[in-house]
Amino acid sequence: MQKKKNKSQIKNNGFALKALLGTFGIFAVGLLVFFIVDLIMPFGRHPGMMQIRANVFLLKIILSIAILGFSLYLIFDYLRSYLQVKNEMLLGVLLSIIAFMMFAISTNPIMQFMFRQDGNGVFSVIPLVFAAAALGTLAWVSSK
Description:
Elements: H1 2-40, H2 49-85, H3 88-107, H4 109-114, H5 126-143
Helix pairs in contact: 2-3, 3-5
């Protein structure tokens, strides 16, 4: 009986090691992608900087609206499921999605303009708070 437990522990440790290596590999690839994009499109060091800024501004608007749209759909779907099942896990995911919705609202340049923020005020910190809240909630759900 003791030998089976040891084999199981060894097998689980093998998966943990593979997951750890995979996590660091994904992180390294993510950093590499940012370096490659910076080499291809050197924001801030390009002669046509005004056009690039306009394109980035428009891209930020489009992406934040897309995140907002996905968030609203997912809130509806998970809230409907939660109201039927009353599962703690569903509530955690729902709270994470709400935090991502707030992230989308706070990163939208239109909202920043409406509140007269230049990017250095409260709108430079709020998105990070919501992202941290979403990930913290998902970590809590994952630990259960």
